[in-house]
Structure formats: structure tokens, C-alpha cells
Design goal:
The chain is built from 11 helices and 5 strands. Helix 1 runs parallel beside helix 7, helix 8 crosses helix 11 and helix 10 crosses helix 11. The two termini are 29 Å apart. It is elongated. The longest helix has 26 residues. It folds into 2 domains: 172 residues, Transcription factor LuxR-like, autoinducer-binding domain (Beta-Lactamase, 2-Layer Sandwich); 55 residues, Winged helix-like DNA-binding domain superfamily/Winged helix DNA-binding domain (Arc Repressor Mutant, subunit A, Orthogonal Bundle). By secondary structure, the chain is an alpha+beta fold. A hairpin with an 8-residue loop joins strand 4 and strand 5.
Length: 251
């Protein structure tokens, strides 16, 4: 698949599953066989937000995800910290430079040790532009086990601009597709009730439109708020909209 063919595919992708599967295969052509894409819309000065609200796409095995994500190692990962403050692409040779200069914290060293055990020793990180300080996205491209960073750097000299372009376009496409976080998914009725709230309807209006009692509508809205971990229905509408969970076609 040529670069142009690939961009046409990305533009027409209908689901995250379809998009991600093909992107993993495309990146493997360049020597990157394990990817983690992460995006948050709830970043603050001191936090990336609730991990349950992250958009996370990966083909890493569960053992790696359990350590890196579930146990919170990502919070101290040198390349994640770099991505939070920068845009563009960065070679993982930066890690070697930090080690040589004695600039790694104890937490960062723990991440490096973990990655080495998982055979993640060479790769690139691409950090995406965000129009809001609340938003941040990046993707980790790990070289195949046994990869040499210098060899990847040589490859990047020839193909790096194309790789950055493909990942940026994939990132922009991801932002348009529905994503149901594992602990934040809505039922069809909860989604419908929120959609009517977003249209400015009252509980009584929604009850008539949905053929339900006001008490049942309130129940759907309460469960939607609980699922999205917010306090008000207005906040639920905003979060569901940011996750592209509203006004979607049902299969």
C-alpha cells in the first residue's frame, strides 16, 4: 500500500478497530511492531486526568499494559514526559543520553528497567499538536526485539517525514470516531436521553419523546452520569460528546 493509498484508507475508515489494525500493520513495515497510542482531553497542570477517560489503543500484550498503564509507570516514563512538553518526533536515543548524563530519576530508571525486560529498547515517540492545553496525544513506536536504535535512526532519516504524516493523519481520524472507554460506555437509552438533554429538552419533554415516565428518564440520566463519572447531566453531555458517544449510528 503506497503512502497515498494509505492516506485514502485512513480518510475512509469507519471504525477504530479497522483503523488501528491497519495502522499497526503499516508501522510494522518500518520496523515498529508494538505501538501505544494515548490521548486525553482532561489534562491539568498536575495530572493527565482519570486514566478511565484516556483513549488508549495498543497491540502490546497484557503483561506490558498491566505494568506500564495499570501500575502507573507511564507517569514517570521519560518519553511520555517529553511528549507532554513537546510536539513532533523524538528518537529514543534521548534515553541513552539521559542515562549517560546522570539525569534519570529513580522512577524513570524503574521504567527503563521494565522496558528492557519487555525488550523495548529502541523506537520513536511522536507527540501531536493540541489546540487546547487540556488535550494531549502521542504515540509510542517500539522497534522489534533486538532492534538497534542507530539502525532505526538511519531508517528515520529516509522515511521519518512520511511516518510522522501517517501518524498525524491517523491521530486526527481517531478524534472523529466513537470511542467507548471500558468503564465509561453508555447504553442506547442513556445515550438517547443525553442527546435530548443536549438538544435543550426538559425531563418532561424527553419522557414524551422517548415514551417513558419522567422517573425512568431521570434514572437513565443518573446512570449515564455515574458511567461517565460526572455530577451533572450537562457535564455528561459534554464528556459523551468529547468521546464521540452521541449522535452516532447504531449497528
Amino acid at each position: 500500500m503506497t503512502l497515498l493509498d494509505y492516506l485514502h484508507f485512513v480518510a475512509g475508515a469507519k471504525s477504530l478497530e479497522e483503523l488501528w489494525h491497519t495502522h499497526v500493520l503499516k508501522m510494522e513495515e518500518y520496523g515498529f511492531d508494538r505501538l501505544i497510542y494515548g490521548y486525553t482531553r482532561f489534562k491539568t497542570e498536575t495530572s493527565l486526568g482519570d486514566p478511565d477517560d484516556f483513549v488508549i489503543l495498543t497491540n502490546h500484550d497484557q503483561k506490558y499494559i498491566s505494568g506500564f498503564m495499570d501500575q502507573g509507570l507511564y507517569r514517570q516514563a521519560p518519553m511520555v514526559l517529553w511528549a507532554l512538553e513537546n510536539e513532533g518526533a523524538k528518537s529514543w536515543k534521548m534515553i541513552r543520553e539521559l542515562i549517560e548524563n546522570g539525569q534519570l530519576s529513580a522512577g524513570a530508571q524503574q521504567v527503563i528497567d521494565f522496558n528492557e525486560r519487555m525488550q523495548l529498547t529502541a523506537g520513536y515517540t511522536v507527540s501531536f499538536f493540541s489546540a487546547s492545553k487540556r488535550y494531549k496525544g502521542a504515540i509510542s513506536l517500539a522497534g522489534k526485539p533486538g532492534s538497534c536504535q542507530s539502525a532505526l535512526d538511519d531508517m528515520w532519516e529516509e522515511h521519518g517525514e512520511d511516518i510522522i504524516l501517517m501518524n498525524n493523519v491517523v491521530h486526527l481520524k481517531i478524534l472523529t470516531l466513537p470511542y467507548d472507554p471500558p468503564n465509561r460506555s453508555l447504553t442506547r437509552r442513556q445515550r438517547e436521553a443525553l442527546e435530548w438533554v443536549g438538544d435543550g429538552k426538559t425531563t418532561q419533554d424527553i419522557a414524551l419523546l422517548m415514551g417513558l415516565t419522567p422517573a425512568t428518564v431521570e434514572k437513565h440520566l443518573r446512570l449515564a452520569r455515574n458511567s461517565l463519572s460526572v455530577e451533572t447531566s450537562a457535564q455528561a453531555v459534554l464528556k459523551a460528546a468529547l468521546q464521540n458517544q452521541m449522535y452516532i449510528f447504531e449497528n
